[in-house]
Amino acid sequence: MKFFITTPIYYVNDLPHIGHAYTTVAADVLARYHRKKGEKVFLLTGTDEHGAKVAKAAQEQNKTPKQFADEISAQFEKSWKDLNIQYDYFVRTTDPEHEKYVQNFLNDLFKKGVIYPGIYEGLYCTGCEAYKTQAELVEGLCPDHNCPPEIVKEKVYYFGLSKYREELTEIIEKNQLLVEPESRKKEVLNFIKAGLKDVAISRTQVEWGIKLPWQPEQTIYVWIDALLNYLSAGYRYWPVDLHLIGKDILRFHAIIWPAMLLAMDLPLPKKIYVHGYLTVEGKKMSKTLGNVISVDLLIKQFGVDGARYLILSSLPYGLDGDVSESFFTRKYNADLANELGNLVQRVVTLASREKIEFTAKEKGDLPKDLIEKLDKCDFVGALGEIWKKVKAENQKIDREKLWSQKGEKLEKLLKEHLQIISEIANDLEIFMPQIAEDITNQIKTLKPQVLFPKIK
Ligand code: MSP
Question: To test ligand 1's pocket by mutation, which of 47, 48, 93 has the most ligand atoms within 8 angstroms of CB?
Fold first, then answer.
C-alpha cells in the first residue's frame, strides 16, 4: 500500500506563516498516520519560484529572482524542519529536473494537438498570478489583492480547456476525482457548468520562468509550471492519493490540472481536500497591516508541538476562521498546560513518589473514532477524541482524590492512569511527535518534567 500526499508549493514572495503551515502540518499528520498504518508514504512539498510576482518581489530587494528564490526557499525548508515536518521530497520549480520535465510535458501536449497559438487580450492579476474577468472584480479591483488587475495584450499559446467540460463534470460528479468537502465539489461543478474558456498557458511579457520549447520568446504560465511539480517530483508514485489545498486555489487544482492529465491520458488524482482560510484579528494577513504570524514566532511562543497543536485544533479544517496571538495563548494554557500537561505531571509525580513499577502494554492501533475523523481531514474532531480521554482522566483523578489515596489502592489506580496516559501518548504521536515521546519517557523513567510551561 502506498500513500502519496502533497501540499501546494508555496510562492517565494512571502515568508512561511501560519497560513502555509495550516496545509503543511495537516499533510504531515496524515503522512504520519499512514506511515503508522505501515503504508509506503510519499509526502511532497516545495516552492513555486517563477513568474511576475516573484520577479517583482526580487526586484524590490535588488536581487536576481534566482538569488531571491534561493533565500526564501531555504526559509521554507527550514521552517518545515523546525516544525518537524517529515517530508519525503522538497521540490523547487527552478530545479533543472523540474524544468526539463515541464518542457517535455508541454511538447507532448503540443503534439497531442490540444495547444494552439493566439493573442490574449484582457486582465491579469499578478498577486493571484491569474487571468481575471470583469465579473470577478469588485469595483474594478481584484477582491483578494485590493488592486486593479493589469490590462495585457500579448501573444500566447492556449490550452483547449473548454472541450473537457462534460468529461470533467462527469468525473467530479461521480467522484472519480473526489473533491471534499461536498460544498467545494458543488462550487467546482457550478463553475464548470457556467462554461469553461480555453486558458493561456504562456506569456510574452514575463521573463522569469521556463521557456516554451518550441517558442522560446514565450514563458510558460507559472500555474502550468507549478501544477506539474506533482508529476515532475512524484511520477514514481502517481496517481496522487491526496492533494491538500486552500480554497483559493481550487479551480487550478480541480479544473485545469485534471484537464491537463486527461489530455495526456494520465490517471487523475484520487482526492482533493480543500481547507478554509485563516484570518488574523479579522483581517487577511499582510505585511502592511503587520498581523502576519510567522512560523518562527509561533514556535518561539508555544514550542514545536504547541505550534502544531494550535494550528490544527483552532478551527474546523474545511471552514474559514479567525485566530490571534491572544487566542492561541489562551488555548495553549487551557488545553496544553492545564489539561494535558497537568495530567501527566500529576500522575508521574505521584508514581515517582510511590516508586511504582510499571511497563505500559504494547502500543496498539489508533482508536476507530480517531481514524474516522482523520480519514475526513477532521483534525479538530480527531484531537477532540484525544482530549475527551485527557479530560475524563483529570476528572477521574479529582473524583478519586488520588493524591490522598494510599497503599495498594493507590498503586492500582496509578497503574491504571499510567496505562491510559501511555495510550494518550500513542494517539498523540502523529500530531505531537516530540511530546508523545517525552510522555512515554516520563512514564518509563518516572521523572516528572513540565511539558508545557504556562504562558502569562
Ligand atoms: N504557488 C501557489 C500554489 C501552487 S500549487 C501547484 C500558491 N502559493 S501560496 O503560497 O500563495 O499559497 C499556497 C497555499 O498556502 C494556499 O492554497 C493555502 O493552502 C495556504 N495558505 C496561504 N495563506 C493561507 C491562509 N491565510 N489561510 C489558510 N491557508 C493559507 O498559491
Answer: 48
**Residue 10: CB within 6 Å of ligand 1?**
yes
Residue 179 lies in a domain: yes
Report the alpha-carbon distance of residue 108 to residue 45 in Å, rounded: 25
Counting from 1 in the atom list of ligand 1, the atom nearest the Cα of 8 is 5
Identity of residue 261: L
How high is the mean pLDDT in each 10-residue block of the chain (456 residues)? 98 96 98 97 98 96 98 98 98 98 98 97 94 93 92 97 98 98 98 96 97 97 98 98 97 98 98 97 88 97 98 96 97 98 97 95 91 98 98 98 96 98 98 98 96 96
Residue 364 belongs to domain spanning? 322-445
The C-alpha cell 491510559 sits at 420
| pTM score | 0.97
Q: How far apart are CA 69 and CA 67, in angstroms?
A: 6
- Same domain, yes or no: 245 and 392: no
The DSSP bridge partners found for residue 188 are none
Asked if residues 343 and 393 have their Cβ atoms less than 8 Å apart, the reply is yes
Helix axes 65-82, 295-313, angle to 10 degrees: 50
Q: Which atom of ligand 1 is nearest to the CA of 247?
A: 17
- Burial (CB count <10 Å: 0-12, 13-18, 19+), residue 114: buried
Residue 233 maps to a domain: yes
